[in-house]
Amino acid sequence: MKKLALALAAFGLFAVSFAQDSGKDKQIPGVQLKDMSGKTINTAELAANGPVIISFWATWCSPCKRELNTIHEVYTDWQEEFGVTLVAVSIDDEKTKNSVPVYVNGRAWEYVVLMDTNSDFRRAMGVNNVPHTFLVNKDGVIVYSHNNYAPGDEELLYQELVNLSKK
Amino acid sequence: MKRIVAIIAAAAGFTAYGQLERGNFTGNIESTFQYLNEDSLIGATQPASKGLLNSYMNVYYTHGNFRGGLRFESYLPRIQGYPTEFEGTGLGMRYVGYGNKFIDVTAGNFYEQFGSGLTLRAYEDRALGYDNMLDGLRVKLTPYRGIVLKGVYGLQRLAFRGGISHGSGIVRGGDAEININQLFKGLQEKELNVVVGGSFVSKFQEDNDDLLVVPQNVATYGGRIGLRYKGFTLDGEYAVKGQDPSQDNGYIYNTGFATVINAGYSRKGLGILFSAKSVDNMSYRSDRTKVMQVGLINYLPAMNRTHTYNLVSSLYPYATQPTGEVAFQGEVVYTIPKGTKLGGKYGTTINLNASTAYRPKRTPNPTYSTDSTGILYSTKPFAMSDSLYWLDINASISKKFTRNFNAILSYYHIVLNNNIAAVTKQPGNIASNTIVLELGYKFKNRSSLRTEMQVMFVNRIDSLDNRVKFNTPGSRATDNGDWATLMIEYTINSNWMVSVMDQYNFGNYDKAKRAHHPYITVGYITGATRVMASYGRQRAGMFCVGGVCRFVPASNGLTLTVTHSF
Predict the structure, then answer these.
(1) Coil, strand, or helix at residue A30?
(2) How close is the nearest chain A Cα to the Cα of B172, in Å?
(3) pLDDT tens digits for B443-489?
(4) Integer distance in angstroms from the first to the last C-alpha of chain B?
(5) What angle do CA B509, B513, B518 make, to 5 degrees?
(6) Ramachandran assignment for B129, one of left (phi > 0), alpha (psi -120 to 50 degrees), beta (any other)
(7) Which residues have C-beta within 8 Å of that of residue B310, sequence separation ≥ 6?
(8) What is the least distance, in Å, from the CA of B391 to any CA of chain A?
(9) Cβ contacts (< 8 Å) between A6 and chain B: which residues?
(10) How do residues B172-217 score in pLDDT, each as one tens digit?
């Protein structure tokens, strides 16, 4: 039991040391993904026209849909206020990827939607589980990373956008 | 203690390294520890080692055109329900790569998919314990705008035994995809968008069969087309496979085929999809003696919705039948606009989905036992019998009533042929009807409450097509009957959450087995780090709590999970 406790403590420190480092000076890795119309997009160029929210989601993930449906209500305001673009990266694999345009359009989302069918971008971004949301500044540097969605988290993201616009 | 110091030093080292202007480190870590109890009522056992640990860490490095990555994995021993192909501790992935605008080369491990995966899909899902990566060489070329060529050559990861354990077969293949509109400048602005592609994959495995002369080289090849015009889409792929006697097909010499067709229409507020699939004898493995998810080179997509509510997702799920099925799926998502009578202030979304699968119609070869062809039957694409494998009809309506209150009401009707999919011991078809009501409320102080109320009524369909309750005396039912679930999740703030769930098997025909399955979870989340502790009884299936979904096996005990991305 003592060994276990020590191992857990070490593990915790390990996690914390990474936590301090997380999201600092990390550029978006370049992966070739397709959008819903089949056009190829290089993820390294996503922030070329201003700050970007990258949100990993899937059609089978309820919290992801809650998050993106909530942001959908304020998205036009955010776009006007910060010039931000939301890129919704679907990690739906071959089984469910055809439901992505059905859901996206059925919900009238105005996001840029990318298809990460074999999780290549998910791996490169170090995403364990969905939802996972990143905020990337106009230089392509990741300034905020959050692995979860609870109602109200969109307000934290808004605050991050405010902070970013002040810099 | 020395070891701990070393770990901390290594972590500190990484931190320091990340701040240097020397390329980019990303990656993630996930560790799941379980301490499980014996629970004969739900059939949960205590492993001999009592404690179980699954752990992995990915580190990826990119610097200009260069990249590299590796993953350490530990199964000491693996958590309950995880596939037996995972054991020990060591390096489970490593690669180096280089890419510019024209060429991209990866040496070592890689994941890849050709088209819709009918010929090749090297894929991972760590939560599920699925990893059939290739280990060798991959080259991608972009010789001209709109053209992508890929070539792969490698061994396949079959298992993890303190390191990568390869299958005995060699996998090699190529894929070409041409985007017609990008290729020709004059077509770039046209409304009709056309993408065509083709792939060829071959596997080599020595003939190690004592009785049969089996082909050592087996090929699959296929073609595909994708069309887009305004809101309409039409995609199709067709692939065939040469003679491939295997454990899956009972060592017959039939050739195989698979085809998938998707047609869709969508505009703002409306999405429609219709899919059809026909598969026969198309399981394709780097080792002909393997079954389940081991050594699969290709992927045959299951044509049904992936459900998330606990009862529908975990009790009677369906997976594609690689030896053959004809399947269809239809889906509609429609949002009644806001400001209308039915749409209300925020709009109302309706989701309808139906899927079904049947056994292919096969004409037996009358001289199979005497001729030497080894061809057991003949069949054609979309030739289907009246033998039902699967039927799923579901609908949900989602509405936000006020700024703080929303609700989702869902209904599911599922019929599963348990002789084929075999999720329980009960023979014949199992029919279930499930209703779920989900309510969410957000308080002024940013805390929020979410609850799911689920009830599932289960019937057995007997040979005369009558529906029999599981708890009817004399029905000789072996399955568990009706279930109810109540889940309450309270998010205290953006860092802390707690949830309590109970699944109650109130309709079990054996009164002694009408068990409650209480389960409590506490989670702490900060940025990209998450720590979760759960205690209680849990059924197998996909489990969503605190904002994240993953697959979890049946258990009774404590589960601790730490995840972090960097």
Answers:
(1) coil
(2) 19
(3) 988 899 999 999 999 887 766 677 666 555 545 455 778 999 999 99
(4) 26
(5) 125
(6) left
(7) B452, B454, B485, B487, B501, B503, B539, B541, B543, B544
(8) 17
(9) 1, 4
(10) 999 999 999 999 989 888 999 999 999 999 999 999 888 889 999 9
